[in-house]
Amino acid sequence: MGARNEPMTITTNVPCPVTLRSIRPDETGRFASQLANYLAEVRPEARLDVMQRAGQLLNRRDTDVWWLVDQATTVGFAVVLKLPDNRRELSEFTIFPQYRRKGLGKLAAQHVLETHRGHWRMGISRKSHAAIAFWGTCLSLLPNIEDLRSGAAFAAEQEKSFTFVIGSGAVGPN
To answer: What architecture (CATH level 2) is domain 9-166?
Structure first.
């Protein structure tokens, strides 16, 4: 996308008040704090050095890490892994609790997913009942999603997975 040390905002044709802004390496502490809150919700049993994990995510070349911003307010974050064969995985996604149930999650998810046409996958945490309900509904309602399938989990901490294709109506790169 761009150099990790330069702020970048992603814009698609999605009519969305939520924008994507790359998280810079100098924001590692802030990101680690939010990542810790997120992991406590979706993987409470995980024993990770959150500061180290945040640094790893922010410095990987095969990963896009974005703040989800509604006007001037950061409302969540998303982590997208670039997989072989030009595929993507929505690895982490959260809307912070105080901003949930306002429609921002669906809009942000659509915005993130439409940054790239093609094959996607994602695993759903078994510990977050809200995530299971959200993604089951959200993905089925989003435009440009083709071949949506539910399947087995990729990891022990997951309930299930989804695979899908963002189709030709999306505006991201091929």
So the answer is: 3-Layer(aba) Sandwich (3.40)
